[in-house]
Amino acid sequence: MFGECHAHIFLNGRNYKEAVALHKNHVSEEAIRQAFAEYRKRGITFVRDGGDALHVSEYASKIAPQYGIDYRSPMFAIHRKGHYGRIVGCAWEGLEEYRDLVKKVKDLGGDFIKIMISGIMVYEQFGQMSEEPLAPEEIRELIHIAHEEGMAVMAHVNGADAVRAAALAGADSIEHGNYIDRDCIDAMKEKGTVWVPTLVTTGNLLGCGRYPQEELEKIFDSARANVSCAWEKGVLLAAGSDAGAYRVLHGQGLVDEYQIFCDLFGETEELKNRLKEGESVIHRKFQAEKVWKLTSKSTIIDAASAS
């Protein structure tokens, strides 16, 4: 099975407020173990998290080896104060604060830096975003500082201008990447950026009744068309579901994401090889100086007893 290249272990795929309340005063070890058990049941042994503000990812990194899972995390994401990202991390106001947060990630044993460059889609209206993205020069500086510290960059980013700027600035992976254009795709190809499109975050909303179906279909069709273009151009792609997001369950979310890729390109060896290639780049880049080692078999929890 492929690795899950974008997850949020602190979320449950059902109710955001419920998930936050569960971990708010004390990390719920039981919830983390249940999520890891779901991954192991499906043969998923690599999980790259997007971080959180509640120390859940930090705790999860300590117990993941018990499930035979290579778990990579930024510990928390970093966002500009007053902009989207509070739910997954810490805010900076000046670049010195940002530098301090990058160093904090390293001190906590984080494997990479996750930066929040844009807002999120407004599902009620195709083409709408929740806020304006960071400026290109700011994006370049954030990525440069992280790279100076020897850390790869996972970039949460949507919108053509912001995605293009992030790719050209050397972001190691683009997460989501909705509403992009061919110039963005060319930039990702040129720079060897891995794109993790998290298609299932929209795909699993279809028919749920929470958002206008017509708008969801437009968003989903646009995302699939862009992924198809990226496929034709030879952009590095990897499977990540944003597991924990609404209607995207841990373990099953990756299965659903892979099915969307299969619907687009057929379940072929070429598809499997292309996704494995993108994932292998993430494996190589998104780890700190330490080398992850699987614990001895005697410490790996039996999935049946842990679920």
UniProtKB/TrEMBL annotation:
InterPro entries xrefs: Amidohydro-rel (IPR006680), Metal_Hydrolase (IPR032466), Metallo-dep_Hydrolase (IPR051781)
Domain annotation Amidohydrolase-related: ranges: 5-248
Organism of this sequence: Faecalicatena fissicatena
Descriptive protein name: Amidohydrolase family protein
